[in-house]
Structure formats: C-alpha cells, structure tokens
Amino acid sequence: MDEPSRGDDSARLGPVEALRRIAFLLERAHEPTYRVRAFRKAADVAGGLPPGELESRAREGTLTALDGIGKVTGLVIEEALRGEVPVYLRRLEATEGSSPDESAARLRTALKGDLHTHSDWSDGGSPIREMAETARSLGHDYIALTDHSPRLTVANGLSADRLRAQLDVVAELNEELAPFRILTGIEVDILEDGSLDQDPDLLDRLDVVVASVHSKLRMDRVAMTRRMVAAIANPRVTVLGHCTGRIVKAGGRRGGLRPESEFDAALVFDACAAYGVAVEINSRPERLDPPKRLLRLAVEAGCHFSIDSDAHAPGQLDWQPYGCERAARCGVPPERVVNTFTAEELLVWSAAS
C-alpha cells in the first residue's frame, strides 16, 4: 500500500485524506492503537457520507453528532474543508523524521529555569540555597521557589507570616547568587470553590503562582471543572500544576497509585489559553501529568506550557528531561514553553497574560 500524501501536498488534502495521513503518521510514531483507530474511523465515517453532507454539517456545527467524529477529528475536517493544513497534521509533520530523543534534548537545552520547586520550608528536603545552587549547576538561570500553601498542613504549608519571612530570605540570597535568580512563588492550593489558599495581597507580591488541586480529587466532573476554571481565571495564577493529580507509579514519597481527576479537559485548556495560564508538564516520574492524550489537547487549544521538575530535593531538579521527552512526542512548540524565556521575558509574559 502506498504511503499517504506527504509534506508539500498536505495543503491540498481533503478531510478524509488528512485524517488518514494523521493515522499513518501516528502509526509510524508507535502511538497507541486506540488513537490511530479514532482517526481511521473518522475518515471512514466522513468518506461514507452523501455528497455535500460533510460541508453542511461543518457549517451547522453538527460534525460531532456523527458517531465516530469527536472534537479533535471534527476540527481536522473543518480545517481541511477550509483548504488549510489541519493543525494536528502540521504538528505531526513538523516532527516527522526527527528523533524524539533529539527533540527532547534540544528542548532541555533551551530551558532556562524551573517554575515548580520545594525547599525544607515546606515538604522539601533541602535548604533554599542548596536547591538554588544545584539548579545553577544544571545550567539554569533561575528557579521559582514554590513551597506549599497553609491548608496543606501535611506538607508544612506556609502561613502568610512564614511566606513573608521566606521572601526576605530569598531577597538576601538573590544578592549573593546574582546573576542567578530565585523567583518568589508558591504552590497554592485550589480550594473547593476555586479560590486560592493564600492572602490575595501577598500573592500579588510573588513572581510565580502555581495553582494545584490537592484535595477532593474525586469530586464530581462538573464541580471539578468549575473549580479549576475559577482558579485559572484568577489573574494571580501563572501555572496550572499537575492538572489530573494522577499517580502512575507506586512507591516513593506518595505511596500507591491514584487515578486521574475527572474534568472537562477541553474547557479547562481553553480557559488556560484564554487567561494566559501555562499548563504544567510535570516531570516527576510518578506523575507524568498531564497524560499524553490531554497534553495533545492542550497543544491544540493553543496553551502555553511550563516543563517543571516539582523537585523536593536537589537531585530531583534533573528530572526535567522526562517532561521534555513527553513534550517532544506530543508536538509541544518550544516557543510556547514559558521556561525557555529569560526571567525578564517570563515576568513580562506573566504580567501581560
């Protein structure tokens, strides 16, 4: 069987051909069979419709009412009908023929910092200075210090007074370690109503706010979606941390496995794109969050990303390659990874978002 049309012919592909081309490239990249089948099934459904129906359904917004066509495959069809190269296809062809390992290595080299780290002020194992000096030795220009907020008592979360005291310590260290920089920050809990677990005026003083769900992880899908979107809409939030909360590897500091939280991922990622909140690609081996299927959805939504170690000890700062590998495989554009920015560019981006 001949290979589907490639590269320069992509602009001329119709919807069915574009769907089959995507399936072909996914197969070549050894992606899961279920994903390949989704595009092949959508191609079969689209190809079996009477003349003109695909176009009319695209105009009416009813493509996804067809069994076998979802949001992603429907978008591919709409873009192809407009004569465009579908974004999903463009991402796959951009990485075709390049080694994911090489792409991941280039991405790791491009990282200038890490926006999610912990010290012994909360549940980390080492002082701030040691974390900073290790990050510098790994080639970073900066790290964000994001110890936990007060509600997470099991992690010795920082009260407002303790966080203020930490800011003074960071200011002193920055004078000593310059030009390396410790960005002030926090990993703030997203409370059940979507509010943030720290004094708003104090959050305004911080460079980076990573907002994460740490409690009631099994709450109803609609309620969890509302909770996450409310936090994302808060102008103080910089990064949405480990969005599904999953644990995929037993043992270690977190014990057993944990399933993903349920929420409307498309809506959550659309909110991140709209409000300028980066989706974290959490590099911890037991998390690897978000899953690749959701990471691809976030790419399609136009999100920015932050590839973070979520380090609780100096050696864990070198876990970012795990996140880079997953980002490379999912076609995350390097220019949308905010910790490839300089510290000054990052703060400008955050203020403008």
Write the layout of secondary structure elements.
Elements: H1 15-28, H2 33-47, H3 53-60, H4 71-81, H5 87-95, H6 100-110, E1 113-117, H7 128-137, E2 142-145, H8 160-177, E3 181-189, H9 200-203, E4 208-212, H10 221-232, E5 239-240, H11 265-275, E6 278-282, H12 292-301, E7 305-308, H13 320-329, H14 343-352
Parallel strand pairs: 1-2, 2-3, 3-4, 4-5, 5-6, 6-7
Report on this model:
By secondary structure, the protein is an alpha/beta fold. The protein folds into 2 domains: 7-95, Orthogonal Bundle (DNA polymerase, domain 1), CATH 1.10.150; 100-352, TIM Barrel, CATH 3.20.20. Helix content is 43%, strand content 10%. The protein has 14 helices and 7 strands. It has helices spanning 15-28, 33-47, 53-60, 71-81, 87-95, 100-110, 128-137, 160-177, 200-203, 221-232, 265-275, 292-301, 320-329, 343-352; strands at residues 113-117, 142-145, 181-189, 208-212, 239-240, 278-282, 305-308. It has a 7-stranded parallel β-sheet. Helix 11 links the parallel strand 5 and strand 6. Helix 1 runs antiparallel to helix 2. 45% of the residues are buried. The model is unreliable at 1-9 (pLDDT under 50).
Q: What coarse outline follows from CA principal-axis ratios?
A: elongated
Strand residue percentage: 5-15%
- Rg over CA atoms: 22 Å
Decide which structural class fits the backbone: alpha/beta
Number of domain units: 2
Say how many strands there are. Answer: 7
- Which CATH architecture of the largest domain is right? Alpha-Beta Barrel
Order of helices and strands: HHHHHHEHEHEHEHEHEHEHH
In CATH terms, the superfamily of the largest domain is Metal-dependent hydrolases
Question: Helix count?
Answer: 14
**Averaged pLDDT:** 92
Instruction: Output the strand order for the largest sheet.
Output: 1-2-3-4-5-6-7
Using the coordinates shown, work out and report the CATH topology of the largest domain. TIM Barrel
The level of helicity is 40-55%
CATH class of the largest domain: Alpha Beta
Distance between the termini: 48 Å
Major β-sheet annotation = 7 strands, parallel
Low-confidence stretches: 1-9
